[in-house]
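Exam revision sheet. Question 4 asks you to relate a sequence to its structure. Input first:
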Amino acid sequence: MAKEKKVEQITDMEVDFAQWFTDVCTKAELVDYSGVKGLFVLRPYGYAIWENIQQALDAKFKATGHTNVSMPMLIPESLLQKEKDHVEGFAPECAWVTVGGSEEAIKMVTTWVREETKKPVMTKLPAIVQDIPGKARAAEAAGADAIATINTLNSLPGIDIHTFVPYPSVDGRSAFQGLSGAAIKPIALRTVAQIAKAVNIPVSGIGGIYNWRDAVEFILAGASSLQVCSAVMHHGYRIINDLTAGLLNYMEEMGFETINDFCGKALPHAEKCVGCGRCVAVCADSAYSAIHLDENRKAVVDKEKCDGCGLCTQVCPVSCMTMEHR
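Answer key, structure tokens:
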């Protein structure tokens, strides 16, 4: 006779909904924790439920003419290396999140993808990394056909001063979250411009595009294609019609026939130091006072003092500060 299983006590849903949900999923053996923070493993019962949901939704999607795409999940590199000892011919390849900010990792992962497909490969780069031009050049050298930038920025949007819980709050709980939309546009424009000056492949601009003027600015900064998400979430897909109509009117007014006629036109004006002194201030207050302005108010870097922290590249409003190996 099969041994009866006794379900352990689970948290009261009215007391802690999040913990109740976790208890139900784990103690019913639907899911288990994985070796990567934020990811979980579907156990047989949980996978069976997922299959039923997937099959029902798949029929609805295909009825409307849509097709599926599979996105890879991340697991520890150590597990992949272990798996190759059990499966002949298994290639232990994954996106190594622990070294995701290094040029070596970018080359490695881009090369994997490039070797497996004849379709265009677009490497997506975040904004807050050291030497973003170097990262873009690494992707280009590994065979990327284009660069997409930027991603959301880790943030804390606000705090309720009476409950002390950050926004947005769900059942009295919150967490750090990705900031997107209009707030990240200045950072996105800077990153697009830096990458566009560094590579000879197309750049796709992302971050804070809400209207046709935003679209024009990104194209002027060097983006030959644009990606819009937050604006569509806020206003619906109709915003794309408004954006394209405004863009076409602008092109007609300026006498441009194609996007290429004005793509990157702002870059020559973003190459020279404007003497604002932001790099001097941030280096003096937060680093090693390695930058000063000369008699013409142009930034000069003392290479002996510079430790390569990259703060100056983050605050320069015209993207004239770049990192280089020495």
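Marking note for examiners. The longest helix spans residues 44-63.
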